[in-house]
């Protein structure tokens, strides 16, 4: 949904030079094959100066040309949006695709405009109304909603005084059976009808002939009482049942997302049509109506389904996140009210708690992006460093606390598996999936290999530091086995041993407390220090690596003040509330995970590296896919790399620091499987990203390797202590 870039023309030499240079830059970048159809207003790789024609900078402004060709040029609608786009390219900042400000309506595409339009616009030619979505409406809602209207009409006719409402329900029964190609109109009642003159029949040439006569009592002394009694009968007998039915249809259609037009239809019917006087509501077929209509059009629907409603947003919040928000409330109420598991079991509560983490992760990401875009660099850096990993850390710390209270080492092993799964998934699965989906639309995608190289170097350093205590324990630890059996029945023969591990607590823990633990603390200090050095390198001394330039040659229509979806205070409140709910959901997940770990035949390794690791990262995966579809693979790769770097350089040191103040079973010694999987993934990722370009085949290789590692974890035996 990118607006077209028109040629900016104006009087004077300045605007003309900028326009000619913009077109020249667009032609150069078209040759490079990266976002050629969008001009030089979006992300594009650095173009060597030698490729530009010398006459460009001789005839026109040299600064304008260089700012477009040499730098990556971004154009935003306002300063807040420009700040958000700039933050996307900063190391350590959360990458966010959605807008944090309201986009100008004139810049939206026709598809998006249709999503937000009210169902009261009559088109010149609506086309055929016999579509799959309309038939689906008939099967799901139309037939029983129409039948309900017929029953209510019968009841209102029985009351006699509610007969006008009965006639209205009879007309609406036919409308809601198949509302497509029909219109509901609100008309003004002529004064002759208000005075109860004889021959009360509405007619209008613009309505295509005489209107349907409404049954109404004759003028007599008690007409006012008659009207009040009919309205009372309608509000007591007819309207509640129909409003409840429309509410059910509205909620169901909204949850299905593609049927949101049906939800709008039902909401408008219950809130407006059914509350009007019967003589003011007219139902007509569009083929019997001439345009323009006289009177207000209340409802006019052509399609029951629209597949583009996945783009729909409410106050800047994607419709999927809106629909999943009630799931959080259900999870919290069910988890804390039904503690003895009378209503549901532990498996259901664990699944609900895990699913609730997805919308909460979205709200946390949206809040962080909003605060960072409206604040200076220092505030944005603090917010991203503080809350950027809050989703994962909340679950990890809650699990470690529960494992320490129960004396169960299995929780610590699950946390290690989740850490490894996040690392492997963000290095292989996230960029691989983005390459595959983006490669379907774009034959070859290019990305900034220099910026990816910074993240890769930090990733190598972090993986080496995290697994240094593990390698140290393998060299100097004592191998201890749970049980051994003599295979040959010979005391000097071969023994088959199970549950073997390197014991670090031999000789009263001398090896661990004197050597391994100081190494862990040293690594936990060095890794955050290296992370700060990386921030200083990319954000201060070597900002030219990203070549980001916010263009000041705004397109026509972009001179709008920023209308933010969430103000800083509102975003802060949402951030704190989402963090609090995240803590509660993590507590419920860890509370009900033990039966799954003990009774499941699946390895605890597999549960940790898949469900617990990747579910909280689903909003980030969606952002990466959206960037890849727009041929901006650099941000897709940075999303995975930044999460992996934060796991090693921030999350693990924080967990080590937490164990100092609250002793747990967590030690920075991983199993061999975690070590080999992580190191192999990092090496493969760096080999793939060396040349700065990729296609869907390379993405398929990364995804397949990830699934192979998942198969290894699936068939691996459970870790010791579980």
TrEMBL record:
<feature type="domain" description="Sodium/calcium exchanger membrane region">
    <location>
        <begin position="571"/>
        <end position="713"/>
    </location>
</feature>
<feature type="transmembrane region" description="Helical">
    <location>
        <begin position="519"/>
        <end position="539"/>
    </location>
</feature>
<feature type="transmembrane region" description="Helical">
    <location>
        <begin position="343"/>
        <end position="365"/>
    </location>
</feature>
<dbReference type="Pfam" id="PF01699">
    <property type="entry name" value="Na_Ca_ex"/>
</dbReference>
<keyword id="KW-0106">Calcium</keyword>
<dbReference type="Pfam" id="PF03733">
    <property type="entry name" value="YccF"/>
</dbReference>
<dbReference type="GO" id="GO:0005774">
    <property type="term" value="C:vacuolar membrane"/>
</dbReference>
<feature type="transmembrane region" description="Helical">
    <location>
        <begin position="317"/>
        <end position="337"/>
    </location>
</feature>
<protein>
    <submittedName>
        <fullName>VNX1 protein</fullName>
    </submittedName>
</protein>
<dbReference type="InterPro" id="IPR044880">
    <property type="entry name" value="NCX_ion-bd_dom_sf"/>
</dbReference>
<keyword id="KW-0050">Antiport</keyword>
<dbReference type="GO" id="GO:0006874">
    <property type="term" value="P:intracellular calcium ion homeostasis"/>
</dbReference>
<feature type="domain" description="Inner membrane component">
    <location>
        <begin position="132"/>
        <end position="182"/>
    </location>
</feature>
<keyword id="KW-0472">Membrane</keyword>
<feature type="transmembrane region" description="Helical">
    <location>
        <begin position="135"/>
        <end position="158"/>
    </location>
</feature>
<keyword id="KW-0109">Calcium transport</keyword>
<feature type="domain" description="Sodium/calcium exchanger membrane region">
    <location>
        <begin position="349"/>
        <end position="468"/>
    </location>
</feature>
<dbReference type="GO" id="GO:0015369">
    <property type="term" value="F:calcium:proton antiporter activity"/>
</dbReference>
<keyword id="KW-0813">Transport</keyword>
<dbReference type="InterPro" id="IPR004713">
    <property type="entry name" value="CaH_exchang"/>
</dbReference>
<keyword id="KW-0812">Transmembrane</keyword>
<feature type="transmembrane region" description="Helical">
    <location>
        <begin position="241"/>
        <end position="262"/>
    </location>
</feature>
<keyword id="KW-0597">Phosphoprotein</keyword>
<dbReference type="InterPro" id="IPR004837">
    <property type="entry name" value="NaCa_Exmemb"/>
</dbReference>
<feature type="transmembrane region" description="Helical">
    <location>
        <begin position="377"/>
        <end position="398"/>
    </location>
</feature>
<feature type="transmembrane region" description="Helical">
    <location>
        <begin position="452"/>
        <end position="472"/>
    </location>
</feature>
<dbReference type="GO" id="GO:0012505">
    <property type="term" value="C:endomembrane system"/>
</dbReference>
<feature type="transmembrane region" description="Helical">
    <location>
        <begin position="696"/>
        <end position="716"/>
    </location>
</feature>
<keyword id="KW-0406">Ion transport</keyword>
<dbReference type="InterPro" id="IPR005185">
    <property type="entry name" value="YccF"/>
</dbReference>
<feature type="transmembrane region" description="Helical">
    <location>
        <begin position="418"/>
        <end position="440"/>
    </location>
</feature>
<keyword id="KW-1133">Transmembrane helix</keyword>
